[in-house]
Every structure is written in structure tokens, then in C-alpha cells.
Design goal:
The complex is a heterodimer of chains A (about 120) and B (about 90). By secondary structure, chain A is mostly helical. Helix content of chain A is about 75%, strand content about 0%. The longest helix of chain B is centred in the middle third of the chain and has 26 residues. Classes of the chains: A mainly alpha (about 120), B mainly alpha (about 90). At the A-B interface, helix 1, helix 2 and helix 3 of A face helix 1, helix 2, helix 3 and helix 4 of B.
Chain lengths: ~120, ~90
């Protein structure tokens, strides 16, 4: 039983590590900021959850599990924030590949000041 | 067991090296912000993995703090990065 638990923990950590690796490969392979953001968000939520589950299984303690829940919730709340800010600034900066966009819904909003949202 | 451990070490190390490479060569500052975000997530994951493998809880508060304040780095970069005004209008 103990051996099985160690294997499960190792496999969960390995999947999380591989997600981190795919994010890093995606950072190098993709062309512009929004596609790189797409690659970067995988380990930020899924890899993090897998590692936290591994910690909870390995340590077998409700106190540790209760400590890990706010970590995951905070990560859930803050990862879209930074991705939104970086993606919007990339659009306004013109550092995206405009030919790759299928729909450009922000084309009219480009002339509004940055503090006006959108 | 040892094979899985070696695979975990190699995956974390290669991911860190590739993100640092993107930080070095990144064409714009936003690319570097995204890459440093990935590097920070990698630090969180590596700390958690070390904690699960060695069965201790000493770095648990660090995990919470890094997850909470790590977002401000890329938000402030995105907020105050210079806009390339007039170049594409």
C-alpha cells in the first residue's frame, strides 16, 4: 500500500513536470505573445493542481490539504488576471501577428485610452 | 522508482533552461514577462514536488506567498510597458 502510494505520487509529479516542459517548449516554438500565453497557462493551473494533489497524497494530512486549497484558489484567481493584462497590452503594442487573427473584435477600441478598459 | 525520479528531474531542469532561454532571446518585453511567469510557476511546482518527495511541510507557506504575489510582476510589466504609439495607425 505504501509502495503504491509512492508510485502514484511520483506519477502525478511527473505529469506536472511534463506540463511545465510542454509550456517551456511552447514558449520557444510559438510565434507571438498570445500564442505563448496559451502555452504558458497549462502548468499554471493544471500542473499546479496535480502537484498539490501529489503533496496531499504524500503527506496524508488534512491540515496540509486545507493549506493547499487557498494556494490553488489564489492561483486560479490570479493567473487569468496577468494573462489578460499581458494579452491586452500585446494587442495594443502591435506585437501580435495580425494576419493570424480570425476575428478582431478590438479593432474599434484601439483608439480609446488604455484606462478605459476593453 | 529511480527512472521516474530521473524523468522528473530532467523535465524540471529542461523546462527551466528553455524558459530562461526565452527570457534571454525574447523579442519583446511581454515575451519575457510571459516566460518569467512560466519560470515562477516552475519554481512553485518544483518546491511542491520536493515537499511531496521528501515528506516535509517547511516550504508550504512559501508556496502560498509565491502564488499570491507572483502575479504582480507581470501585471506591473503589462501596465507600464511603453506603448508603440503611432507605429501601426
Amino acid at each position: 500500500m505504501n509502495e503504491l502510494r509512492e508510485i502514484v505520487v511520483l506519477v502525478l509529479i511527473l505529469i506536472g513536470a511534463l506540463l511545465c516542459l510542454t509550456a517551456a517548449i511552447g514558449l520557444l516554438r510559438f510565434r507571438d505573445v498570445p500564442t505563448r500565453l496559451h502555452a504558458a497557462t497549462k502548468p499554471q493551473v493544471l500542473g499546479m493542481i496535480l502537484i498539490c494533489i501529489a503533496i496531499a497524497i504524500a503527506l496524508e494530512s488534512w491540515a496540509v490539504t486545507a493549506f493547499l486549497v487557498p494556494v490553488v484558489i489564489i492561483q486560479f484567481a490570479t493567473a487569468p488576471l496577468s494573462a489578460h493584462m499581458v494579452g491586452r497590452q500585446a494587442y495594443r503594442n502591435g506585437t501580435i501577428d495580425e494576419r493570424s487573427l480570425v476575428v478582431d473584435e478590438l479593432a474599434d477600441d484601439k483608439r480609446t485610452p488604455p484606462a478605459a478598459g476593453g | 522508482m529511480m527512472v521516474l525520479l530521473a524523468a522528473i528531474y530532467v523535465a524540471f531542469g529542461a523546462a527551466a533552461l528553455l524558459s530562461v532561454w526565452r527570457i534571454i532571446i525574447g523579442p519583446s518585453i511581454l515575451d519575457r514577462a510571459v516566460a518569467s511567469d512560466v519560470l515562477l510557476t516552475l519554481v512553485i511546482c518544483a518546491l511542491g514536488a520536493e515537499m511531496a518527495l521528501n515528506h516535509h511541510t517547511r516550504t508550504l507557506p512559501l508556496l502560498l506567498i509565491v502564488a499570491a504575489v507572483g502575479v504582480f510582476g507581470s501585471i506591473s510589466i503589462a501596465r507600464f510597458v511603453a506603448r508603440r504609439d503611432g507605429a501601426d495607425r
